[in-house]
Hints:
Number of domains: 2
Distance between the termini: 58 Å
Number of strands: 23
Structural class: mainly beta
CATH class of the largest domain: Mainly Beta
Helix content: under 10%
CATH architecture of the largest domain: Sandwich
CATH topology of the largest domain: Immunoglobulin-like
Amino acid sequence: MKRQCLRNSIVVIFAVSGLGMFVACGDSSAPMPTGPSTTPFLPSASISVTPFNHKCSGASCVQIGGTEQFSARVSCAVGVTCPLASSQDFTWSVAGTGCAGASCGTIDVTGKYTAPASVPDPATVTVTATSVADPRWFAAPTIAIVAVLGESFSLSMNPTSVAFGNQMVNTTSAPTAVTLTNTGSTPQPVHARVNGPPGQLQDFAFTNDCPSRIAVGASCTFTITFKPSATGGRGATLLVDGTFEEEGLLSVFGMGTN
Length: 258
């Protein structure tokens, strides 16, 4: 997919960690700040796209048939007038030079991308997030579609859930150990993160003795404690990403009491 900035427009470079440089277009007729300087003022704006943890030989990638949830957001530097920041609605599309239509994969209105069942040639596609408020502003990361032949990728948690039961508010439970094992056929990186309702994530503390890369058949240990900050049910999910996302899952929950 190609997009060209309008003639005499401002070009703003969007830097997104792990995804290279994105380019967006803005109207050069936008109001400029007054002052003695005659140098044109470029709004300091960025689009963040999260999460994107898949890596293949240094490039961002998604396995055939796999999914990735994109989330775009316009943000501006403090003190900079940025009308687009008040509208965070985007349209999503996907295209490639070696594919067309569904053979490039699909993306829904929420930004969830599903890779095709086969690798296009060339094996890259571009996912584009376009501002609804002003279509001249967009972000377009390029990702690789990969096929993994003769290899399996799997990280298992044992157990897959931990129930801490009742725990007094602001007191810490006894630790619980959970084993992570590489049950696939190739060594994998280990990247842990936590998801859950706002205000509850801090109630669960996780430590581990895992190496940065775990060998086939090897295991390591996650240690979890529960310290409720409020009464009532509390919960979170520990996600362990290997070569691909969410290969190991652990649900934790408990009840805060007085």
